[in-house]
Write a structure and sequence with these properties.
Order of helices and strands: EEEHEEEHHHHEHEHEEH
Strand content: 15-25%
Largest sheet: 6 strands, mixed
Shape: globular
Number of strands: 10
Number of helices: 8
Structural class: alpha/beta
Mean pLDDT: 90
Length: about 270
């Protein structure tokens, strides 16, 4: 399928979002427009407070735009749904449930019979490398292991779109690199791309964005809108030190640093 024939999966149409902060209106997003294609690994980067996570939560159905529309598969998003899975920065695991208990949760809520739910949960536990930890509780797991559980839980009910809000942001640098490689492995080898899942990943890290993405959306300083789009047409797995990788990283950094400078000057 040529790039021109790939359908638009996600669309933001003239989205603005206002919050009330200390009795004052704060404009988080201002006429945000973007399109994301089916099957792409999309990454959103931008200065702190530019509305990256706000847009992700709108796509999840947790937040509503003040004006404008979020469109998924040609329909306006008005509430959460099983066609979207989400992974948060802080894991959001149930501490009273085991690994398999956490992964199976969405399947239970969807009314999947116990045998099928157990088999599906086990498949995704194996997929993220946690075989043998099915009966472990979250407090006994490392940060990287907890995030693997969260990813397995999000994938287990076969969502069409996977949303990830800085999922590796609270991990140490080495674990973060390992998780980037593992997510790339899932994307390449285990069939996420072949199933035409679309991924939207929010991060502060340009290094992470260029390592993972098919396409990077760089946001302006608040109020957020799309400043620029960088296509990352590099083969996977990627080499953090290759000239091609460094060139793409430089492109993204240049766009981002202009906005960071604006943010600093506004505060001065």
């Amino acid at each position: 399928m040529s790039d021109h024939n790939i359908p638009i999966k996600i669309e933001a149409i003239d989205i603005s979002k206002e919050f009330i902060d200390d009795k004052k209106k704060v404009l988080a997003l201002d006429h945000l427009n973007l399109q994301m294609k089916a099957g792409d690994f999309n990454v959103i980067v931008g200065p702190s407070g530019c509305g990256k996570s706000t847009f992700l939560y709108m796509l999840a159905g947790f937040e509503k735009p003040t004006t404008g529309q979020v469109i998924l598969n040609g329909e306006e998003v008005t509430k959460p749904g099983p066609d979207r899975g989400i992974v948060f920065q802080e894991y959001a695991l149930f501490p009273w449930r085991t690994v398999i208990g956490n992964v199976i949760f969405g399947l239970e809520r969807a009314g999947v019979n116990n045998k099928e739910a157990q088999e599906t949960a086990q498949y995704y536990i194996d997929l993220v490398g946690l075989t043998g930890f099915e009966k472990a509780y979250p407090h006994t797991l490392s940060g990287g292991m907890k995030q693997r559980v969260a990813i397995a839980r999000a994938l287990a009910y076969h969502p069409d779109v996977l949303l990830m809000d800085e999922p590796f942001g609270s991990l140490d640098a080495q674990t973060r690199k390992i998780m980037q490689r593992e997510l790339t492995h899932l994307w390449m080898e285990i069939g996420i791309a072949e199933e035409q899942k679309t991924l939207v990943f929010v991060t502060h890290s340009v290094i992470e964005a260029v390592y993972l993405a098919d396409r990077i959306f760089v946001m302006t300083d608040r109020p957020g809108k799309v400043k620029g789009i960088v296509d990352i047409d590099l083969p996977r797995p990627r080499d953090y030190d290759s000239p091609e990788y460094l060139e793409k990283r430089s492109q993204v950094l240049q766009l981002l640093e202009e906005e960071v400078q604006k943010s600093i000057s506004h505060k001065d």
